[in-house]
Amino acid sequence: MVRTARQWQRFVLKRKLCRQTDAENLAMAVRHHERSLSRKTFRAIKTEVAVSKLAQKHRILLCYKYARMWKAKVDYSVTARAVDRENAVRRVWLCWRIEYKKRCAAQKVVINEKKYLLNMIIRNLRGFHLS
Asked: From residue 50, how far is each of 40, 42, 45, 57, 61 by CA, in Å?
């Protein structure tokens, strides 16, 4: 009977130890699972924050890019208008100078013709009085 009692006691202790180790293993597995879930969650949150920051940075860079393009186009148009005005003034000034020189030359020709005619008249009158 003693032998049976000892065997029973050993069996109960083994069972108890087995249940205790099973409970410890289960607790360790639950803790491991919870830790891995929390790590995965934190990694996912960190990744999501990084992705949102990257997307925001990308949007800002696109805004800067298109702002620079718009500014360049505006600068080009302002410059083009200024150059066009300057070219128009140059063309008008060139035309005026050409016309002015033509008019001056024509006036000189007219003055020379008048002088020539007056000289001819005076010569004829001198010749007319002498004869």
From this structure: 15, 12, 9, 10, 16
